[in-house]
Amino acid sequence: MSGGNPATLLSRFGKLITGFGFKKNIPVSLYDFHLQSSGASLTTTIGTNPGFDKKGTSSKHTVLSWQAAKVVAAGLQVQVPDDYDETLDIFILKLKAVMSSDSDTPNFGAAAYKNEASTDLAPDDTDDLSDTIAWVNIDLSGNSLVAGDNLTIDLTPEAHGSDSIDVFAVKIEYRSDLVYFDPDDRS
Fold this sequence. Notes:
The chain is mainly beta. The protein has one domain (24-176): Jelly Rolls (Sandwich), CATH 2.60.120. It is 4% helix and 36% strand. The chain has one helix and ten strands, in the order H-E-E-E-E-E-E-E-E-E-E. The strands form two sheets. Strands 1, 3, 4, 6, 8 and 10 form a six-stranded antiparallel β-sheet that branches. The longest helix has 7 residues, at 6-12.
């Protein structure tokens, strides 16, 4: 097929191709988080609030850290991507996190709000943290999200006694409906 439109070709297979959408990931900077109570930027002063710390051999990795017993909320604002598949409605905030030891197994209590609404979308936040680095999911799927929605997501760790919590990376996983891009027409 020389010079043809790839979207037209794919649409001809519409009844043959099945699946669960095109999985995409968008990295989120740790520096996009803020102190939920005031909206203030997080800092490296982490004795009272969540903030930034260095971890790893020779302190090479910057992490978002909650010190032992700190249960203060950090907030994040993100926009639902323009190519979001509203039919599948799958949107997951993923945090690559670890506990400093295994004496506690809390999870992140999450609250999420869409646009200007004050009703919590009640994301599924049941993944426990452990002393092994792993992805923890905050699942906002099935909340009738649409492309362009603004989301405010607040993360508050459950009680974690003498263990600190460190987040190494954050990403948004979603399903995309965009197969071919035409700047003038998406139909």
